[in-house]
Design brief:
single chain; about 150 residues; Rossmann fold; 2 domains; 3-stranded parallel beta sheet; 3-stranded antiparallel beta sheet; 5 helices
Length: about 150
């Protein structure tokens, strides 16, 4: 059994865990990333539940000649979400996400070494909408998840 000394332990090497670990590393905070998945298969629930990310105006879409925009993303989301007239906060979240997913999520992930590949159209989206799957292993980011056995 190995012993590690750190200030922070992040449990789960899914997208949220990896993003948290990267933010901490950017702040020079020592971190150990633990994951309960079998060795070499980190990724959390994203591995079990499709793993795609809803993004617009990406380099992958441009390479595949897919025209997209925050406006198209929002229109797809509002249609698929079947929002009610009084769904103010869900609509506000959808609007903010559509406007900011490329600079705040996609570009941040790209800057941290995450690469994507297009998965195609999903659900009720129009043909221009593509979900994209992050194609990294945490090792590509300089993260080495420590694998642990679930006690149950």
């Amino acid at each position: 059994m190995h012993t590690y000394k750190t200030e922070v332990v992040v449990i789960g090497a899914g997208l949220a865990g990896i993003a948290t670990a990267l933010e901490l590393l950017d702040l020079n905070v020592p971190v150990v990333l633990l994951d309960g998945a079998p060795e070499g298969k980190p990724g959390g629930q994203a591995n079990e539940a499709f793993g795609g990310m809803l993004l617009s105006n990406t380099a992958e879409q441009a390479r595949n000649r897919i025209k997209d925009s925050p406006e198209l993303l929002l229109a797809d989301w509002l249609r698929a979400g079947e929002f009610q007239a009084d769904d103010h906060w869900p609509k506000a979240w959808a609007t903010l996400y559509a406007e900011q997913c490329t600079p705040m999520i996609y570009q941040w992930l790209i800057a941290h070494g995450i690469r994507f590949f297009p998965l195609g159209t999903v659900g009720r989206a129009r043909s221009a909408r593509q979900w994209q799957q992050p194609a990294p292993l945490p090792h590509r980011l300089g993260l080495r998840p420590r694998y642990c056995q679930h006690p149950g």
